[in-house]
């Protein structure tokens, strides 16, 4: 049974992106690049939503590097009710219920399942209790005025166990958690 790993890049205050923020919030460095390269080389099958797919597909040719090329050939599923086709040879479009589809995938053999961005997808999978590990790349900034897409908005209260932590480029935190269910509450 494959693990489902959700990976997200966020600000300290939990936003998936900022109105004026550059890629990786401007904190991309050599350790960050090495982690991405190593992480994407690990065998996995990708789960991606339409908005993330369209954003990546819309990148200009000059930034379509080796990592982008590898991503486009990674086997996986693109969840969309609207797209008719994908230019990425590794992807199959799925119009089915995300939760039911992923629940079935988790019952099969194969490499881990991993989301690529796709905040809506991650929220659905977390709410359904299907996520085995949550990897957060926390960039050292807060965006109370310009932050967009609060990552955990609308989710139920959930506890997590910290599995690992690492500092990238002396400033970015890489945190890996396992969901544990309801968090502790004061009686």
Would you summarize the structure shown here?
By secondary structure, this protein is of the alpha/beta class. 24% of the residues lie in helices and 33% in strands.
- Count of β-strands: 10
Number of domain modules: 1
CATH superfamily membership: Dihydrofolate Reductase, subunit A
Largest sheet: 8 strands, mixed
- Span between termini: 37 Å
CATH topology assignment: Dihydrofolate Reductase, subunit A
Strand arrangement across the biggest beta sheet: 5-4-3-6-1-7-10-9
Strand content: 25-35%
The CATH architecture category equals: 3-Layer(aba) Sandwich
**Helical coverage, percent range:** 10-25%
Task: Please explain how this structure is put together.
By secondary structure, the chain is α/β, with parallel strands linked by helices. The chain is 24% helix and 33% strand. An 8-stranded mixed beta sheet has the order 5-4-3-6-1-7-10-9, with helices on both faces. A two-stranded antiparallel sheet has the order 2-8.
């Amino acid at each position: 049974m494959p693990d489902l790993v959700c990976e997200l890049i966020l600000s300290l205050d939990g936003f998936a992106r900022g109105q004026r923020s550059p890629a990786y919030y401007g904190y991309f460095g050599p350790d960050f690049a090495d982690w991405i390269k190593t992480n994407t080389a690990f065998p996995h099958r990708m789960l991606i939503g339409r908005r993330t797919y369209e954003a990546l597909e819309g990148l200009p040719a000059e930034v379509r590097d080796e990592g982008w090329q590898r991503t486009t050939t990674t086997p996986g599923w693109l969840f969309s009710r609207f797209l008719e086709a994908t230019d990425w040879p590794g992807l199959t479009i799925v119009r089915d219920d995300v939760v039911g589809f992923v629940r079935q995938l988790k019952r099969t053999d194969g490499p881990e399942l991993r989301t690529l961005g796709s905040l809506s997808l991650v929220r659905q999978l977390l709410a359904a209790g299907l996520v085995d590990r949550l990897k957060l790349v926390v960039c050292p900034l807060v965006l109370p005025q310009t932050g967009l897409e609060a990552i955990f908005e609308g989710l139920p209260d959930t506890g997590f166990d910290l599995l690992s932590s690492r500092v990238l480029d002396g400033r970015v935190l890489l945190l890996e958690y396992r969901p544990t269910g309801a968090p502790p509450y004061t009686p």
